[in-house]
Amino acid sequence: MTLAIQLKNVTKTFRIPLAKQDSLREFFVNFKSSKSFKTLTVLKKINLEVKAGEWLGIIGPNGSGKSTLLKIIAGIYEPNRGKIEVSGKIVPFLELGVGFNPDLSARDNIFLNGVILGMSRKKIFEKFETIVKFAGIAPFINQKLKNFSSGMQVRLGFSIAFQAHGDIYLLDEILAVGDYQFQQKTNRVFKTMKRQGKTVILISHSLENIKEYCDRVIWLQNGQIKRSGAPETVIKQYIKSK
Amino acid sequence: MRINQRKNNNNWDLFYELVRTDFVMRYHNSALGFAWVLLKPFLLFLTLMVVFSWFFKNQDPFYKLNLLLGIIIYSYFQEAVLRGVSCLYEKSSIILKVNFPKVMAIFTSVVNSFISFFFSLIVFFIFWLWVRPSGSLLYLPYFFLHILILTALILGINLFISISYIRLRDLLSVSEILLRLIFYLTPIIYPLSIIPSRFQQILLLNPLAVVITQSQNVLVSGYQLSWTHTLYAFSLAAVFLFLGLYWFKKNITSVAENF
Questions:
Q1: Cα(B219)–Cα(A175) distance, rounded to whole angstroms?
Q2: Which residues of chain B have a CB within 8 Å of the CB of A87?
Q3: Helix, strand, or coil here: B160?
Q4: Hey, is the C-beta of A102 within 8 angstroms of any chain B C-beta?
Q5: Which residue spans within A125-186 are E strands per DSSP?
Q6: Residue B199 lies in a domain
Q7: Chain B interface residues facing chain A, Cβ-Cβ under 8 Å?
Q8: What is the mean pLDDT of residues B51-74?
C-alpha cells in the first residue's frame, strides 16, 4: 500500500486584519495599537493519509476548512505547523479555467490554462483536438472567450484540466458542471479515472455524489476531522447531526 | 513543511505563454498597436529635443543622439519597474487557485519591457548611422554589459516591490513619484558635463546615471569607459538582485493569504 498524500499535525491559522491596512496611512495609524488583527485557526492538527488510488470525500458545513485543506494539499497555502508529503503530480480542479483571459481566443486560452496547470506546450498541441472535441466548442475555437456562455467556459476549463494528466486530482465542487449531456460525459471521465487508479479528493455538498464515487469520507467540523470512515456511515451521522 | 517529489518542469512553456499573453493584451483594441512601443519614447524625445537642444547644443555636439539614447534607456527602466509593481497582484486569481512558479511573473514583467527597448534601440542605431557620431560600434559589447547590469538591477527592484505591493498598495504612487525624481536626477535632458565635477560624482551614485552616461560615452561621444563606475553599478545591481531574491523567497509562501 503506497500513500499518495500524508498530512501530519497540519495546522493553519490566518491573520484576519480588523481593518485591512493596505495603505501607508493606515499602516502608521494602526502602528501604535499593537494588535490590529485576530488569528483564526482554520485547521487544527489534521492527520490524514490518502492511499494511492483512493477516492476521498470531504464533507462539512461552510467554513469548516474544507477548501483550505485542499489548498494546503495543492501547495497554495503553506501550513503554519505540521508536515505534508505528496507523491505524484497534483492537478488542482479548485476552479475551472484558471488564468482564462476573456480577451484572448479560446485557442490561446487553452495554451495559457494548460501551461498554468503544468502541461508542456508540446503536450497541449497533441491533446488540442481532444480538448476542443470534449468541450464541444470546435466551431468557436477562434472566438474571444468573452463571447462564450459561462457554461461553455466551464466546459472548456474542465476539458483542459482533465487532459493535464496527473496522479492526484483535487476537486472542489466541480462534479456537476455544464448541461445534462456534458455531465454524462464527465461521469464517464470520472469512471475512467477510477479505473485507472487515480487518487482523488473531492469536496461536495451533494452527498449523493460523494456516496457514488468515494471509498472513504471525512467530515470536517471547525477545522478538525470529526468522523472518518465508510461513506454511508459518516454521511448518516452527518445528516443526523443537523 | 512540504515534501513533493514531482514538480512541474514546463517553466519555459509557462514563461512563453505568460509573455505572449502580456504582449497580446497590451495592444489589443489599439489602432496603432505595436507602433506605440516606438512612438512613446520618440514623442517624448521630440518634445524634449525641441525645448532643450537650444540650451545644450554648445555643450554637447551630439546632444540629440545622447538625449535619444538616454530616453530609451530610461524608458526601459521606468516601464519595467512600473509593470513590476503590479505583476504579482495581477496574477492573484491564478495564485489563489494553482501552485505555479510565481517568479515567472517577475521575469515576464521585465521581458516585455525589454522587447520594447530592443525595438527602440534599432531606431536609435538607424539615427546613429545617419549622424555618425564619434563613438564606435566596436564598443557594443560594453554597452550590452551595462544593459545587463541595468536588467539585473530592475529584476532586484521588481522582486522586492512586486511582493511588497500586495501588502502596501501605496507603492505604485510612491514608485511613480520616485521614477519622476530619478528622471531629473539622471543626466538625460542635460549633459553630465554642465554639472560641477564634485557634484558629478554624487550624481553617478545613481546606477541608472552610470548606465546611461557610460552608454553615451562609448556609443555616441567616443569617450573612455570608466571601469570604476561600471564595477560600482555592477556590485550594486548584484546586491539588489541578491536582496530581492532573498525577500521574494521569504515572503512568497504566504503571498496567497495576503491578497
A1: 63
A2: 4-6
A3: helix
A4: no
A5: 168-172
A6: yes
A7: 1-6, 8, 10, 13-14, 16-18, 20-21, 24-25, 28-29, 93-100, 167-170, 253-254, 256-257
A8: 88
Give per-residue pLDDT as tens, A88-114.
889 888 888 888 999 999 999 999 999
Show which of residues 128-157 on chain A sit within 8 Å of chain B, judged by CB atoms: none
What does the alpha-carbon distance between residue A39 and residue B74 come to, in Å, rounded to a whole number? 45
Interface of A with B in 25-84 (CB under 8 A): 27, 71, 74-79, 82-84
What residue ranges do the domains of chain A occupy?
3-20+45-89+207-241, 93-202
Cross-chain Cβ contact A167/B6 below 8 Å = yes
The pTM is what? Answer: 0.90
- Residue in B166, B145, B174 with CA at minimum distance from that of residue B237: B145
Distance CA B75, CA B193 (A): 22
A20 in contact with B, Cβ within 8 Å: no
Rg (CA), chain B: 20
All cell numbers assigned to A174: 466541480
HSE-CB at B54 with a 13 A cutoff on CA atoms is 4
CA distance B213 to A78: 46
Q: What are A107-147's pLDDT values in tens digits?
A: 999 999 999 998 999 999 999 999 999 999 999 999 999 99
Mean pLDDT (whole number) for B55-84: 91
Domain total in chain B? 1
Domain A93-202 is found in CATH 2.60.120.10: no
How many residues can be counted in chain B? 259
Strand pairing partners for A216? A56
Q: Is A22 on the interface with B (CB under 8 A)?
A: yes
pLDDT at A186: 86
The pLDDT value given to residue A29: 63
Tell me if chain B has a CB within 8 Å of the CB of A220. no
pLDDT of B88-128, one tens digit each? 999 999 999 988 889 999 999 999 999 999 999 998 999 99
Cβ-defined contact of B97 to A27 (cutoff 8 Å): no
Spell out a b/e string for A150-188, using b for 16 or more CB atoms within 10 Å of the CB, else e: eebbbbbbbbbbbbbebbbbbbbbbbebbeeebeebbee
Domain A3-20+45-89+207-241: assigned CATH number: 3.40.50.300
Looking at the complex, report in whole angstroms how far the Cα of residue A17 sits from the nearest Cα belonging to chain B. Answer: 10
Write the ipTM: 0.86
